[in-house]
Design brief:
The protein is α+β, with helices and mostly antiparallel strands and 146 residues long. It contains eight helices and six strands; from the N terminus they run H-H-H-E-H-H-E-E-H-E-H-E-E-H. The protein has one domain. Helix 2 packs antiparallel against helix 3 and helix 7 crosses helix 8. The two termini are 29 Å apart.
C-alpha cells in the first residue's frame, strides 16, 4: 500500500463527522488533512479580468476571490459560511449555472480568515457537510492542533 492510499479522502473525513458529530477524533482527523485538501467554490459570474488572473497568478487567488460572488451557507442566526464542495459533481448538482474554482485547503481557510463576513466554512459532499469555524481556521493556519 502506498502512502496516498492510507490517507483518508475528504469525503471519508467529513462522513466520519456526520456519523458522529461529537467525536473529537473525527474532527482532529479532518483538521489534520484539510490544509492539504482540494475544494471547489461555486462562483456566480466571474469578470473576465479576474478569471484570467486566476489562471495566470495563483499568488493573488485569495484577493481575487474576495471580490467574486461566492456561494454561501447562511445559518439561522444570520452568520455566513463559505460553501466549499468536496467534488465538482456535488457543486454542479447544488449550484447549477455557477463557475467552479478549485482551491487548496490552505487558500480556503485563508479566505475565511481574511473575509470579515465569513464566520466559518462548510465542507459539502454528496453525503452531507461538516463545518470549520473561523477561529479553528485561524489556529490551523498558525500550525496549532485544534
Amino acid at each position: 500500500m502506498t502512502m496516498t492510499e492510507s490517507i483518508p479522502n475528504m469525503g471519508e473525513l467529513v462522513l466520519a463527522i456526520i456519523n458522529d458529530p461529537t467525536s473529537k477524533i473525527a474532527r482532529q482527523n479532518l483538521y489534520q488533512q484539510v490544509k492539504n485538501g482540494r475544494f471547489f467554490l461555486a462562483v456566480h459570474g466571474i469578470p473576465l479580468n479576474l478569471y484570467n488572473a486566476l489562471d495566470s497568478n495563483q499568488v493573488f487567488v485569495n484577493q481575487q476571490l474576495m471580490h467574486m460572488p461566492l456561494q454561501l451557507a447562511v445559518a439561522d442566526n444570520g452568520s455566513k459560511a463559505l460553501l466549499a464542495y468536496l467534488d465538482k459533481e456535488t457543486l454542479d448538482a447544488n449550484a447549477p449555472n455557477h463557475w467552479a474554482i478549485e482551491v487548496s485547503g490552505s487558500d480556503l481557510l485563508n479566505l475565511v480568515i481574511l473575509n470579515h463576513e465569513f464566520s466559518a466554512t462548510v465542507l459539502k459532499g454528496s453525503m452531507g457537510w461538516a463545518g470549520i469555524a473561523k477561529e479553528d481556521a485561524r489556529l490551523l493556519m498558525k500550525g496549532y492542533a485544534v
